[in-house]
């Protein structure tokens, strides 16, 4: 199957698995050409909706802040002028995201508080610089993070609800990123930027609104490996690893480490994957020398029964036992937790991704999950969801 450049980019950095990318690409219609001064400018996007039910009203309000209701998750609009194949090619990508899910990845505006509500998911200039027999492709502006198994785009993920690992990672960078493709099997990315985190972790680290962000910029780098055709049934397997280091000001900062892999199996319909996230929070403020950390390990499975029907499974283990600094806000009250998510996807209508999902979250200690009333709590939370996304 031939993927578009945006999908290949997400897969190359481990943001999505090739299995989920294939399903998203199969249900996406041809991108429309917009009548502008640049005839090759294209318009694409999606409308993302959901219904959520929590038995007993007990909900996981930490990694998935939706409970008992109907939701418009987001409306996404993207304008693209892709690069051509010339050595000094240029282009651009502008992506606007509206709705509740736009908040984690929205542009903070480099200290301009009035721009905090502008729903800019991405907005960058793409440039190519020839180097030897290859080239460096640049992104200059606002772009998605280069680490992670899952994306801010629901439809690009194997499951509807997001993983604990996703909540530990940065979401958006504002700066410069360069990608060098050695060959079809190896590529490297590196950049310097400001960074925006989501969830309870590091919500203000180096986000362009703090005075230390320009003095202590974020450094980011990753490597992507793809198995060649000579690997037989394992051809197309991907391994991705990356580091995002955000020193922040002299008082606080964070470093995110990520590794992920997606592997085909001898059974052509089955693909498996794994992801590992490690977050190191550092605090050098006087009187507080905490060096807190948390990590998350996830396993993924995808079974493509036919062109329309697929099954996806995710299992995770989260360990926050080393979080102790008073200036840090854990995304989860419990020190240790597990979650299991099962998703059935069936594409009944053209251009519509439809799926049902059940999720179980369990805290090893304590009762962090609260009911809608706030008067009861539990160590377990169950979520049933219906997700429908129209892609255009």
CATH superfamily annotation: Porin
Q: What structural category arises from helix and sheet content?
A: mainly beta
Please, how many domains?
1
User: Level of helix content?
Assistant: under 10%
SSE sequence, one letter per element: HHEEEEEEHEEEEEEEEEEEEE
Please give the radius of gyration in angstroms.
Answer: 21 Å
Per DSSP, what share of the residues sits in E-state strands of 2 or more residues? over 45%
Flag low-confidence runs: 1-31, 104-117, 199-214
In the CATH hierarchy, the third-tier topology is known as Porin
Overall body shape: globular
Q: So, CATH architecture?
A: Beta Barrel
In the CATH scheme, the class would be Mainly Beta
Average residue pLDDT = 80
Q: For the terminal residues, how far apart are their CA atoms?
A: 19 Å
| Total count of strands | 19
| Strand neighbour order, sheet with most strands | 2-3-4-5-6-7-8-9-10-11-12-13-14-15-16-19
């Amino acid at each position: 199957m031939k993927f578009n450049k945006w999908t290949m980019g997400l897969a190359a950095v481990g943001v999505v698995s090739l299995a989920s990318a294939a399903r998203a690409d199969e249900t996406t219609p041809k991108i429309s050409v917009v009548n502008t001064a640049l005839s090759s400018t294209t318009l694409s996007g999606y409308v993302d909706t959901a219904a959520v039910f929590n038995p007993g009203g007990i909900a996981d309000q930490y990694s998935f802040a939706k409970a008992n209701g109907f939701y418009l998750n987001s409306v996404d609009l993207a304008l693209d002028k892709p690069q051509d194949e010339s050595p000094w090619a240029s282009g651009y990508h502008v992506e606007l995201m509206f709705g509740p899910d736009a908040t984690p990845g929205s542009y903070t505006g480099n200290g301009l508080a009035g721009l905090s509500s502008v729903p800019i998911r991405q907005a960058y200039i793409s440039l190519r610089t020839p180097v030897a027999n290859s080239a460096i492709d640049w992104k200059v502006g606002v772009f998605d993070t280069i680490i992670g198994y899952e994306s801010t785009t629901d439809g690009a993920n194997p499951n509807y609800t997001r993983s604990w690992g996703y909540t530990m990672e940065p979401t958006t960078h504002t700066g410069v990123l360069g990608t060098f493709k050695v060959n079809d099997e190896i590529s490297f990315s590196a950049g310097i930027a400001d960074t925006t985190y989501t969830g309870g972790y590091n919500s203000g680290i180096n986000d362009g609104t703090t005075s230390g962000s320009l003095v202590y910029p974020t450094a980011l780098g990753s490597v992507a490996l793809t198995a060649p055709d000579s690997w037989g049934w394992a051809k197309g397997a991907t391994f991705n690893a990356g580091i995002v280091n955000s020193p922040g000001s002299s008082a606080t900062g964070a470093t995110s480490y990520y590794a992920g892999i997606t592997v085909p199996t001898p059974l052509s319909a089955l693909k498996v994957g794994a992801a590992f996230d490690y977050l190191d929070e550092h605090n050098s403020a006087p009187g507080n020398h905490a060096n807190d950390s948390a990590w998350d390990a996830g396993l993924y499975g995808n079974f493509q029964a036919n062109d329309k029907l697929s099954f996806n499974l995710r299992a995770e283990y989260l360990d926050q036992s080393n979080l102790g600094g008073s200036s840090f806000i854990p995304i989860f009250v419990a020190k240790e937790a597990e979650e299991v998510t099962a998703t059935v996807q069936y594409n009944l209508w053209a251009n519509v991704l439809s799926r049902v999902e059940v999720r179980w979250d369990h805290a090893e200690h304590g009762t962090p999950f609260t009911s809608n009333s706030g008067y009861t709590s539990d160590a377990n939370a169950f979520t049933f969801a219906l997700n429908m996304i129209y892609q255009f």
